[in-house]
Structures are given as C-alpha cells and as structure tokens.
C-alpha cells in the first residue's frame, strides 16, 4: 500500500466529557474510496467531525499529508485540502444553488478558477445547473444532497469526507447519490465516506472499516468485508 | 400644518439617530445571537471620547468622530475577545448578563472618573446651527447625524450584501459550523462583527456632543430604545430596525407634543408592547 495521505492514530473524542471514540485508527491512501460503516451511534460521524477539525480529539493524532493536523480548526483544514460534507447536508437554505456553490469555493479568490470549478460540478450534476437560481430549500432531498457534495467539491479538496449521504433519501435516490460518489473520483479526489447502509457503501468502496461502539472492529478490502461472516450476520441480515 | 410637519421632521431626525445605534445591536444579534447590553454604554464612551478630544485638544466632533468610532471598535473587539467569545453558543442569558455587568462597570467607571455632571462642548462647528426649509427649521447637528446614519446603514448593508467578507458574515449567521466547513474563520468574523457594531454606535456617539450633553447615564436610555427598535423590527433585520427606529422617533415626537413631553416614552413603550404582542418576532422578523 502506498503512503497514506490521511493517518488517524488512536483517536479518542467525545461530547461534554462523555467519550464516544475509544481509540480509532485508520488510514486513507491517495485516490482511494474508503468507507466507514457501522450502526447508528457507533461513532462514525464523531470520527468524521474530529478529522475535519470541528471537534478536538482528547487523545491521539490526525496526520494529513504527513503533517500533524490534530486539533486544527475546520477552516484551516479546508485550506489544507480536506473538506467535510456534513451529515444532514447543512446547506445555506435561503441562498440559491449557485450562491451555495460560490461559498464552497470561499478559499479561492481567482474568479477564473471558480468559474472552471463551477463548470465541472455542473457537468457532474446537470440538475444543479438547471436549478442554479433556485433557493436550496426548494429542492428535493436528493438534489440537496448533490448540491452538498458539489459544494464540497468547489473547494477542490484533495480529500473529501462524505457523511451519511443516504440519510433521509428514498431508495432510488440513494442509488443515484452513491453513484455520484463513484463519479466524483474523476476529480482526482480521494474519498472517505461514512455510511449506515453497509452493503451499498461497501459495494462502491475500495476498502472499509467497521466501527462499533467507538472502536474499529474490522477492516480490509470491501470484498473481503462483504464476504465475512460477522459483517453478513451483524449488518446485512444474511 | 407647519407644526405637524415640524414635529414629523424632528421625529424622523431622532429616529435616524436611533437607527444608527440600533444598527450595531441588530448586526451583533443577527450574526452571533448575542444581545449586547453594554451597547448604550459604548455610545456613552464614544461621547466621552468626543467630549474630551473637544475639551482638551479643541478637536471638533466633525473630525473626532473618526477617533471615537475607532476607539469603540477596539473596545468592542477587546470585549469580544476577553468576554463574549467564551459565551457565544452558550445559553443566550450568559452573554446578556455578562454584557449587563460590563455596562454597570463602564457606567460606574465614568461616574467615578468624570463625575455625574452633564458635560456639553460649549462651541462646536455645528452647535446651535439651523437651516430654514420653507417654514420648517432643520437642526443642523441632528441633520448631520441623520445623514451619517443613513450613509452608514447603506454602507454596512452593501458591505454585507456584496463583498466577500460580507458573504462570510452571512454564511456565519446562517450556520456557523457549515461556514467553517467552507473555510471561513468564524472566530475572526465574530470579532469583526462585534467591533463593527461598536464602530457604528461609536460614530453616533462621536457626533452627539454637538448638541447633547454627556453624562454616565446617557447611554442607558439609548441602549433601551435601540433594543426596542431591534426587537420591534425583528431581531437581525437591518431594514426592520431602520423602519422601527423611524417609527419610534415619530411616535416619541408626536406623543411628546400632543399628549405631554413626559408621556413620550410611555407612548413608545406602549407601541412596543402592542407590536410585540401582535407580532412576537417583530415587524420584519422571520
């Protein structure tokens, strides 16, 4: 395996003194699509928030491109090339689609570069171009999720963290949105995603980590995880 | 008819003064969800800065408002860094009580340092000057403040609506965490907004000594009225607080004349009660 661009080592974190993560370690290499799967409340989102800099770990370290970024605030992480698309999308609901996308490129000042990125995300999600003047809140759940992904891509990240994309979407849209994840790989971006839908996530990912009660209980290539008895029994109901 | 117009004019001019004071308050609330109870005292401090610069160094308020404004910007910025930054995102009452404590402190500090006496700059460029407009009389000092107020509101509005930093402020107001994920340093934005709110009220305070005496209690009423304007206009709405400020100015002027001068604030607060009962979120609130 190549040198990892993201290296999370023994990270502990929690809310208001209540620990949620009990020593999470994981690695992501350039160009990979890695999925973190697990049940509700296992600590998936907390892991993402800690990597993205929205929370400080109480122990452990986060390295990004061999630089120690533990505890750096989120806005600094964006500038370093790590963008987090949060759970629940968190769009600027009262702003238009285009304005949301422009804010996604806040760290970039060059107008030409921004226009070029806009063209690329419109190419990826043509529906956003059609709706560019519409307020974000008027769009369907699936479209909003695409907008959230596109907004994340507007910062031209090296690594994008996608949190629970399927949340609250009807099954046909889940498929559409997850297909979009495979498509964003042509942006030369590495993807770390969190998903409650274990099967769907592992089907598109290269590798996976299974998290349970704030610990990594299993990891490996997706195919291997999908075939393992534990995963089948615990998450896939087979 | 002339009398009626004259009262309306006075009301509007006073309303514009309230508007620039309320602007700072509504800005801070709109972005940070913090009510700055020391806002009136920021005005008072700006008036003292202007008064002392005029008294000791003979600098006219028409010039020294810049210094007053910068001074209060820094005061507000330091207040944010040392106090408010620890309270943002905590229950709204904590910041409110802390700034209330600050207002007590500033009031009593000035009482202790400058005595409770009313201080008025005897001569300024604008003092006592009036402009006749037909049969109406325009008080020049009040007119200057009204013009400044309008200009500042316009500039702040444009700044927020159409600059990169303004966009960052809007995003932070809408969703702080999401704004951080866009690469916006929200700590910086908060400090800037708190300072900006101070700078707005600093401009008003810097110009006020041209016709209003300064004393340690002078900010209390302004703070209260600004609060009412902001609540009535709908917290966080710049146009709402401008509209409400003009309404307050007019009601104050008419009630003061047609009922009794002593009655004017009764009318203002009665209006406030009625509006808040009918529209709890204010006239322009969402």
In terms of DSSP E residues, the strand content of chain A is 25-35%
- Please state the CA-atom Rg of chain A, rounded to the nearest Å: 17 Å
Helix-strand category of chain A: alpha/beta
**Top-tier CATH class of chain A:** Alpha Beta
Describe the structure.
The complex is a heterodimer of chains A (238) and B (286). The mean pLDDT of chain A is 92. Helix content of chain A is 38%, strand content 28%. In chain A, helix 3 (97-104) packs parallel to helix 6. Chain A contains ten helices and ten strands. By secondary structure, chain A is an alpha/beta fold. Chain A has a single domain (4-236), classed as P-loop containing nucleotide triphosphate hydrolases (Rossmann fold), CATH 3.40.50.300. Chain A is globular. Chain A has helices spanning 44-52, 74-80, 97-104, 111-124, 126-130, 141-153, 171-183, 198-204, 222-227, 229-236, and strands at 4-15, 18-29, 33-38, 59-64, 67-68, 82-85, 159-163, 190-195, 207-212, 215-221. The two termini of chain A are 31 Å apart. Chain B is mainly α and 286 residues long. Chain B has one domain (2-216). Chain B is 73% helix and 3% strand. Chain B has helices at residues 2-32, 39-57, 61-82, 92-114, 140-162, 164-174, 176-181, 186-207, 218-233, 238-258, 264-278, and strands at residues 130-133, 136-139. Chain B has a two-stranded antiparallel sheet. In chain B, a hairpin with a 2-residue loop joins strand 1 and strand 2 (136-139). The radius of gyration of chain B is 19 Å and the shape is globular. Chain A binds chain B through residues 52-54, 73-75, 78-79, 83-86, 90-95, 102-104, 106-107, 109, 151-152, 155, and chain B through 164, 167-168, 170-171, 174-175, 177-187.
């Amino acid at each position: 395996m190549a040198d990892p661009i993201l290296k999370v080592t023994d990270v502990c974190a929690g809310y208001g003194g209540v620990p949620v993560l009990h020593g999470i370690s994981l690695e992501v290499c350039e160009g990979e699509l890695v999925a973190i799967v697990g049940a509700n409340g296992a600590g998936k989102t907390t892991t993402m928030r800690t990597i993205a800099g929205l929370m400080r770990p109480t122990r452990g370290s986060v390295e990004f491109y061999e630089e120690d970024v533990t505890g750096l605030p989120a806005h600094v992480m964006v500038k370093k090339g790590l963008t987090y698309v949060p759970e629940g999308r968190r769009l600027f609901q009262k702003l238009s689609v285009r304005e949301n996308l422009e804010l996604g490129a806040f760290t970039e000042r060059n107008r030409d570069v921004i226009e070029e990125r806009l063209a690329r995300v419109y190419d990826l999600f043509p529906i956003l171009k059609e709706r560019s003047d519409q307020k974000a809140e008027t769009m369907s759940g699936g479209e909003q999720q695409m907008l959230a992904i596109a907004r994340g891509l507007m910062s031209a990240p090296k690594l994008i963290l996608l949190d629970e994309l399927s949340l609250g979407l009807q099954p046909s849209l889940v498929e559409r949105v997850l297909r979009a994840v495979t498509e964003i790989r042509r942006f030369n971006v590495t993807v770390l995603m969190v998903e409650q839908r274990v099967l769907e996530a592992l089907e598109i990912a290269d590798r996976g980590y299974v998290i349970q009660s704030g610990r990594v209980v299993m990891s490996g290539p997706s195919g291997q995880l999908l075939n393992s008895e534990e995963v089948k029994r615990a998450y896939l109901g087979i | 008819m002339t009398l009626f117009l004259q009262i309306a004019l006075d009301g509007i001019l006073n309303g514009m003064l309230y508007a620039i004071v309320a602007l700072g308050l509504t800005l801070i609330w709109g972005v940070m969800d913090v009510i700055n109870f020391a806002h009136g005292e920021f005005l008072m401090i700006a008036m003292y800065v202007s008064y002392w610069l005029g008294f000791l160094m003979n600098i006219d308020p028409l010039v020294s408002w810049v210094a007053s404004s910068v001074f209060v910007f820094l005061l507000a910025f330091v207040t944010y860094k040392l106090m408010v930054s620890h309270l943002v995102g905590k229950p709204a009452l904590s910041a409110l009580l802390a700034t209330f404590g600050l207002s007590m402190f500033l009031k009593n500090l000035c009482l202790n340092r400058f005595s409770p006496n009313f201080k008025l700059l005897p001569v300024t460029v604008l003092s006592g000057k009036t402009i006749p407009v037909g049969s109406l009389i325009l008080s020049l000092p009040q007119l200057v403040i009204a013009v400044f107020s309008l200009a500042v509101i316009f500039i702040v509005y444009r700044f927020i609506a159409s600059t990169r930093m303004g966009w960052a402020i809007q995003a932070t107001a809408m969703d702080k965490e999401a704004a951080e994920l866009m690469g916006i340093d929200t700590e910086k934005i908060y400090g800037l907004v708190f300072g900006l709110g101070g700078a707005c009220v600093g401009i008003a305070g810097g110009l006020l000594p041209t016709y209003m005496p300064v004393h340690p209690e002078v900010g209390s009423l302004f703070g209260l009225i600004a609060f009412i304007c902001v609540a009535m206009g709908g917290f966080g709405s710049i146009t709402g607080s401008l509209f409400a400020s003009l309404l307050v100015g007019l009601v104050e002027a008419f009630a003061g004349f047609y009922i009794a001068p002593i009655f004017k604030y009764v009318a203002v607060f009665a209006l406030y009660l009625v509006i808040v009962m009918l529209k709890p979120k204010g006239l322009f609130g969402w």
